[in-house]
Amino acid sequence: MKRLLAISLLSVTPALAGPFDQPYSIIETDTMPSADSHLRPVIVNRVDDENSQNNRSVVAPGAHKVTLDLPPRKGFRTATQHTLDLATQPCMRYYVAARLESPTLQEWQPVVRYSEPIGECRKKFNVASGAR
């Protein structure tokens, strides 16, 4: 009986592996105020057809399609959506935003406002610092 229990627990263990068990990247909304009147916070809707949680997605490093929503602003009734192609590096956090073509129009482009290394990830997986 003990052997059967041990075998069944071992077979479940790989299913319990999470996104933080290997090098990862984080994509999230940039909420920092900006002096640039053309930058706006967005909603991280989904990454590679997986819904994000709390405007944040933890992903494996590599190429991703990030779907972003810009909520309606004063004078507009509907939100707009764009997809950003983003190649993430291991142990990096990416802050995304919308760059308006004009504050009076709804046209915008998704941008990575800035990125930063994730210290605990770099330490855990021994990832060397590189160019950002």
Task: Provide an overview of this structure.
By secondary structure, this protein is mainly beta. The protein has one domain (23-125). The protein is 14% helix and 42% strand. The chain has 2 helices and 9 strands, in the order H-E-E-E-E-E-E-E-E-E-H.
Give the structural class.
Answer: mainly beta
When the domains are counted, the total is 1
Sheet-strand content, in percent, reads: 35-45%
Tell me the Rg in angstroms.
Answer: 19 Å
How far is the first residue's CA from the last residue's CA? 53 Å
What is the secondary structure topology, with strand pairs?
Blueprint: H1 2-12, E1 25-29, E2 39-40, E3 43-47, E4 50-51, E5 56-59, E6 62-70, E7 80-88, E8 92-100, E9 108-117, H2 119-125
Parallel strand pairs: 1-8
Antiparallel strand pairs: 1-5, 2-8, 3-4, 3-6, 6-7, 8-9
List keywords for this structure.
elongated; 132 residues; mainly beta; 9 strands
Concise synopsis of the structure shown:
This protein is mainly beta and 132 residues long. The chain is 14% helix and 42% strand. The strands form two sheets. Strands 1, 2, 5, 8 and 9 form a five-stranded mixed β-sheet that branches. The protein has a four-stranded antiparallel β-sheet with strand order 4-3-6-7, with no helix packed on it.
